[in-house]
Write a structure and sequence with these properties.
heterodimer, A: about 260 residues, alpha/beta, Rossmann fold, five-stranded parallel sheet, 12 helices, 5 strands, about 10% strand, B: about 425 residues, alpha+beta, Cytochrome-c3 Hydrogenase, chain B, four-stranded mixed sheet, 13 helices, 13 strands
């Protein structure tokens, strides 16, 4: 029997699910190898149980948490798809303010309709990644995901193999492509600490990496030290300089001293 | 008498999350409501404090499908705030990028999301066994659009190369010319798909409601990248006055803001653009509009999907001409922007696949964003969807609930709503 697969989305731009459509003809091959039982963006059907749940988006309200828990219960394997599900992505930057402050900035001050009581869709919006709510079996990182990597991961799962997500810095791929290191032309790049797998696509087009795939698993040990050394940078400096996709790590760092205080 | 209750939660085959609720008793509609339940992400709040060169990358993430359109509007707003000039070449490459997105988004909507309704199936997958040739042609049109994004923007979703003042990387003349041939080759494919849709066009409900249409207009071209605001009711308005056109307001059933201008509601998108500017379409696009009997002013929202087909063809024709002009002028691959960061406010509008999009930023003298406002096409359509539903629903009550549900879903789908953009959800509820 073909394994059943269901797609779900929470807060996101749905650009990662769009990459499935962007597989073009290959999407028909995928649909041939697995049984897609739910995919709200492209089909009407709903399902109550599935072998693989593929979830895009960050989790923000109690109603979203509850829905994610249900999906987790119905699934054997749960995959976090893309930077929102993996890290909380750009919308996580909103966590710098309270929910009320954000609401006031976007929707205005004195609008009585916009209360949590009158509109449950507004309840407590704080963005988190999936693994902060439920156990996640696998992450397909990136903003957006690389659609070829998606297929590789799916194929590995179907063959019972370990999915091939790299755990080395973007610098490795950039050097393989023989790109000019952006630091040499005065640009800033997170390549030395960012997780590879994108084939260094942004540096290749002349833009610094923003670590949309998160960091390598132990950035202090696995960072590209020769590049860091040459330009007098520390891992910490790089990680704190740019936070477009990686505000999760900033929040985690802020939490640490607080945890210590509590313990003390 | 019968009670009709429809409740569609998380409407399918649309981008984002929305619900439809209908209660009717004894042949009278008691409640019909279009609800937007998408979780808010507060882009306008969290971009505060971010530097000028991050804004287009951050706001691109408002929507995957229209990431090029958000990037372009964002770049234009930043450029307006700091008076950053752009070259002719940049203008033409940006127009190509916008065509890529328009083509990709339109064929995705018409081919993958609307066509299943026209063939009365649940998704594009059941179409494959009986209509494989048609599905593969749709895929081909989709692929072609994505290849253009990759050529100009570095990839298909969330563009890399577009930066304030220009590009970080510019495609070669050879690559552009190769692509131009693909554009020529797609024309017969477009016509085959157009014919298949024409043969099934009678499946689209015949429903009209007079409303106002708003979009950009320009003397130079069928306005997409640039122009002034135009309304079918009130004529033209400067882009800087967008706030008095959109008049955003908040309703209790939605996390998306609603808008209205001269009437209770207005519509934006392909049909609005067609209604405003159809005489500037290229010849083949014009010919297909006639085949579908699409003429301005068309008040049938279901014809929005047909206007998208017409625009796809227009984008192919315009793409061919743009590449001719770029090559004639000679591609300068070394051109890089020069930016002088300064304080200011910039307002910009671009026609993205679902309609007119506004970004409005204020920067301090360090180039840090201190205030942002984005008015999204789907937000501008939510209110028109609601008003359409109020008129359309009573005409459906004699039908079985399943058909009522299908018709209401099709109505929302016709607008090609992008609810992530406007916040994010689509569901029908028959209560």
């Amino acid at each position: 029997m073909k394994p059943t697969v269901a797609f779900f989305d929470f807060s996101s731009c749905e650009g990662c699910q769009l990459q499935i459509a962007n597989l073009e003809e290959t999407v028909l091959d995928v649909a041939d190898k697995v049984n897609i039982v739910e995919f709200r963006e492209v089909m009407k059907e709903h399902a109550e149980a599935y072998d693989i749940a593929i979830v895009e988006g960050s989790i923000c309200r109690p109603m979203d948490e509850e829905r994610l828990r249900k999906i987790r219960k119905n699934a054997t394997i749960l995959i976090a798809l893309g930077a929102c599900a993996h890290l909380g992505s750009v919308q996580r930057l909103g966590n710098q303010w309270t929910a009320e402050e954000n609401k006031e900035e976007v929707y205005g001050k004195t609008i009585p309709e916009v209360t949590d009581d009158s509109n449950p869709f507004f309840e407590q919006p704080r963005h988190r990644s999936l693994d902060e709510i439920v156990p996640v079996d696998l992450v397909i990182p990136g903003c957006p995901i690389d659609r070829n990597e998606f297929v590789k991961v799916l194929v590995a799962l179907l063959q019972g193999k370990k999915p091939p997500i790299p755990d080395y810095p973007v610098c490795v791929e950039c050097k393989k492509r023989e790109n000019v290191c952006l630091f040499t032309i005065g640009k800033f790049c997170m390549g030395p600490v960012a997780r590879a797998g994108c084939n260094a696509i942004c540096p290749t087009y002349g833009l610094g990496c923003e670590a949309c795939r998160g960091y390598v698993s132990h950035p202090h040990e696995k960072a590209q030290t020769d590049v860091l050394k040459k330009y007098g940078l520390s891992t910490e400096e790089i990680m704190n300089r740019k936070t477009m996709y990686t505000y999760k790590y900033v929040e985690k760092q802020q939490e640490k001293p607080r945890e210590k205080e509590v313990k003390a | 008498m019968s009670t009709v209750s429809v409740n569609v939660e998380h409407l399918t085959r649309v981008e984002g999350h929305g619900n439809i609720v209908l209660n009717a008793k004894d042949g009278t509609v008691e409640k019909v409501e279009w609800q937007v339940s998408e979780a808010p992400r507060f882009f306008e709040s969290f971009v505060r404090g971010r530097p000028w060169d991050e804004l287009s990358f951050l706001t691109s993430r408002i929507c995957g499908i229209c990431s090029i359109g958000h990037s372009l509007t964002s770049l234009k707003a930043t450029e307006a705030a700091m008076q950053i000039p752009i070259s002719d070449q940049t203008g033409m490459l940006r127009r190509l990028a916008l065509h890529a997105e328009n083509m990709q988004s339109h064929i995705l909507h018409v081919g993958y999301l609307v066509a299943p309704d026209m063939f009365r199936v649940g998704s594009v997958f059941p179409l494959v066994p009986d209509h494989k040739d048609l599905v593969l042609k749709i895929v081909k049109m989709h692929r072609l659009a994505n290849e253009l994004s990759t050529l100009v923007c570095g990839r298909t979703t969330h563009p890399i190369t577009m930066i304030p003042g220009g590009f970080s990387w510019i495609p070669s003349q050879r690559a552009l010319l190769e692509y131009q041939q693909h554009l020529r080759d797609i024309i017969p494919v477009c016509e085959d798909v157009g014919q298949a849709l024409l043969d099934n066009c009678h499946m689209l409900p015949d429903f009209s409601r007079e409303t106002e249409y708003i979009g950009l207009t320009s003397d130079e071209e069928y306005a997409l990248y640039d122009g002034v605001i135009a309304s079918t009711d009130t004529g033209t308005h400067p882009v800087e006055e967008y706030e008095s056109v959109a008049n955003e307001f908040i309703v209790p059933q939605s996390t998306a803001k609603y808008t209205k201008h001269h009437r209770d509601s207005y519509m934006v998108g392909a049909l609005a653009r067609f209604n405003l500017n159809s005489d500037q379409l290229h010849p083949l696009a014009m010919q297909w509009a006639l085949k579908f009997q699409l003429k301005p002013l068309c008040y049938n929202p279901f014809m929005n999907s047909i206007a998208q087909v017409v625009e796809y063809i227009h984008s192919v024709e315009d793409g061919i001409l743009l590449i001719d002009k770029l090559v004639e002028q000679g591609i300068n691959r070394d051109e890089r922007p020069s930016v002088q960061v300064k304080a200011g406010r910039g307002i910009a509008a671009v026609e993205v696949p679902r309609g007119i999009l506004f970004h409005d930023y204020t920067y301090n003298d360090k180039g840090i964003c201190t205030k942002a406002n984005c008015v999204i096409p789907t937000n501008q359509n939510h209110n028109n969807i609601q008003k359409d539903m109020e008129v359309f629903a009573p005409t459906l009550l004699e039908k079985p609930e399943k058909d009522i549900e299908l018709n209401l879903e099709m109505l929302v789908r016709a607008y090609d709503p992008c609810i992530s953009c406007s916040t994010h959800y689509l569901d029908v509820t028959f209560v």
